[in-house]
Amino acid sequence: MNNCPLVSIILTLYKIDKEYLNECIDSLLNQTYNNIELICMDDCSPDFDYSYLKEKSDKIKYFRNEINLGMTKTVNKAFSLVNGNYVVRLGSDDWFEKDLIEKEVNFLEEHKDYGAVCCELKRFGDHEQHIRRPMSWDYKNIVTNKVYGGTGYGGGMMFRRKLLEKCAIDESLKICEDFDFHLQLLHCMPIGSIHEILYHYRSHNTSLCSSIKRQERWASLDRIIEKHRKLLEQ
User: Fold this and answer.
1) 2 lies in a domain?
2) Please, what's the b/e burial string for 154-189 (b: 16 or more CB within 10 A of its CB; e: otherwise)?
3) What is the pLDDT of residue 167?
4) CB count in 10 Å sphere of residue 5
5) If we measure between CA atoms, which residue out of 174, 176, 188, 162 comes closest to residue 225?
6) In whole angstroms, what is the distance from residue 42 CA to residue 51 CA?
């Protein structure tokens, strides 16, 4: 397994319950694919000390921002630190099937013309839902027809590191940044879907998503669509 491509897994930390975080970390350290590095980015969480993560495994690389930068800047900072052939950003209070990383790596190894791959998710906690992924990721169709179903969830999207030369999290966005990033990836190379639930997405009242007003979300989505519509016209 050590001769297999290195995978960089990014976890951003800010006021994450340690019980949830430990469940997340354990599910990653117990993956069937073990050539991984865990980049844990602490965005200067007040009253939270996550430095203990360094003792859990030599696969974990812990970084703490000196000041709070916010989600988008913290993710881009993490992108600059990756060493892997493949990169995947995961939720730090979620948990994952033990073969998530293996199946996504195998897909990208077998489909050299694809830039990224995702799996299906199961929401649990305050709300339960099976989040399905598109059968086909069609950039023009998504942008023209505003296809949001299954395209905006950031969890479990593994992509080739070389795409970071052209793609980055848009730091002007407060929400829906994952949807924009996926469209950036798709504009460069095709995205594939694994139609299995490999990702378990925690839903709870303290999550960012639950605090965002519906109209604010739609305004952000419309802004992203307009941005990519202009790319289509070029």
Assistant:
1) no
2) bbbbbbbbebeeebbbbeebebbbbbbbbbbbbbbb
3) 97
4) 14
5) 176
6) 9
